[in-house]
Amino acid sequence: MADVRRMTIPLRGAWKVPRTRRANRAMEEVKRHVVRHMKVTNEETIWIDETVNHKIWERGMQKPPRRINVVVTREEGFPIEVKIDDETDEDGA
């Protein structure tokens, strides 16, 4: 059975680094948040969907979003998947 969670990930840590590194740090913040809240073990890997990357880099390196809504899926035998939550992101909230 798959464990599916909807998360709003705060990316405030990305704004504490120089502006030329913000989008890179935002991607690290996504991974840190998932590791912490999904209790990822050393044997598990995390796969972040390309749409998450595009959403963070949408306004460029210097202006990533303040938060991002994602859906995290854990299924046995597969990497943990992180995807954009289409239900809440389309209306801009």
List the helices and strands and how they pair.
Layout: E1 3-10, H1 22-38, E2 46-48, H2 50-57, E3 67-74, E4 80-84, H3 86-89
Short description:
31% of the residues lie in helices and 26% in strands. It has 93 residues and is of the alpha+beta class.
What does this structure look like?
With 93 residues, the chain is α+β, with helices and mostly antiparallel strands. The protein has a single domain (3-89), classed as Ribosomal Protein L31e, Chain: W (Roll). Helices cover 31% and strands 26% of the residues. It has three helices and four strands; from the N terminus they run βαβαββα. It has helices spanning 22-38, 50-57, 86-89, and strands spanning 3-10, 46-48, 67-74, 80-84. The protein has a four-stranded mixed sheet with strand order 1-3-4-2. It is globular. The termini are far apart.
Stated plainly, the CATH topology is called: Ribosomal Protein L31e, Chain: W
- Please tell me what the overall shape is: globular
CA radius of gyration is: 13 Å
Q: Please estimate the helix content.
A: 25-40%
Elements, N to C (H/E):
EHEHEEH
Largest sheet: 4 strands, mixed
Q: What descriptors fit this protein?
A:
93 residues; alpha+beta; Ribosomal Protein L31e, Chain: W; 4-stranded mixed beta sheet; 4 strands; 31% helix
